[in-house]
Amino acid sequence: MNSEKMFLAVIFAALIYAQGVFTVQTATDPTGDYKGPGWFTPPQNPVFKNGTVFDLTKFEVLYNATADALVFRITFADLGGNPWGSETGFSLQYVQIYISRGFPGNPWGTVSCSVLRPDDGNVASGNAFFDEATRFFCPDPANLTQYKYTPGVRFSGQAPWDVAIFIGPKWGNETVNYVAVADVTGGTISVSPLPRVYAQGNSIVAVVPRKLIPPTTRLMSDFPQPTWRYYVLVTSYDGFGPGRIRPFGPVAQEWTVGVGAANASAVLSGTVPRVLDILGPNTPLRTFTRDASAVLEPQSLSWGNFPLAYTTTTVNRIVPLTVTRTDTLTVTETSYVTTTSVSTVTQTQQIYVEKPYVDPTSYAVMGLGVVAGLAGALAAARRR
What we know:
By secondary structure, the protein is an alpha+beta fold. Helix content is 13%, strand content 32%.
């Protein structure tokens, strides 16, 4: 390669970095597994294309350095177009992403917290996310008034969510697309609308400014880490259904997902998973019974092309498993950990504290890319 071609190659590479969009994490999902636990029947209207519109095939987390925002891209076998003219460019899917950023143990206490309960009401009214009686959406499965709003699944008690992202079609002034961040030590949940959700081919894209997902403990980060784990749920959107989810019943109908007559009691008790596909194997969806909902395990993603370095420190400390107050514990001379729970048993735990940081080289390269791109553009202008 001569010097001129090499120079152009360097300029081209620099311009790619100058755009500031990187693939941070990614995962693929098996095709053809859009029938929930395996035997659900999609709604019968032709608009749903026999259910392929719910077939999740890929999940990506990107970083837009220019906007300092995370970009979540969810790809389907067939997005199904936009038959009802939604402003977001898709009409059929409802995606819920729950992120476990690695707070050690279960910060919600001894009960494995259920999924967020997006209400039918206005998020701004203040009752859509926080319920004093159920404490962070751990509803009694027998309480249909509360449980009917969830997708009908629970998450691993060892990997509770602290960031939840809701993505769906939108018409008019509806509040549909938003991010919720749970402060695991302060006992509050903050809710913010997403600035942009749109369709791109067979993908749904949601832009989440990084400032909307601040860390709530010193063990968390606002930038994806290899230790972050994800629950990604896909179901059928229905703006008039409980929790904006299309009805699930014993028999499939034009606008109803069929779960089988044998599961009629689970439909009545609210434990049937109201989900058609999840990231990873769908096997956990089969574990529901009439008396208990299915428990999902989070998925780890492959690292992309964004340069990241992180170190891990091992700390031995006595921690309250559950306490009735908030305790600030010194684990090193300069690091503090705050825990909150509900009883008074203690034990010794070995905590692996990750100290992530973004490789400054990446920003140096991006800076050089911007300079190189400007120089190339000026040179081209002079030649003209």
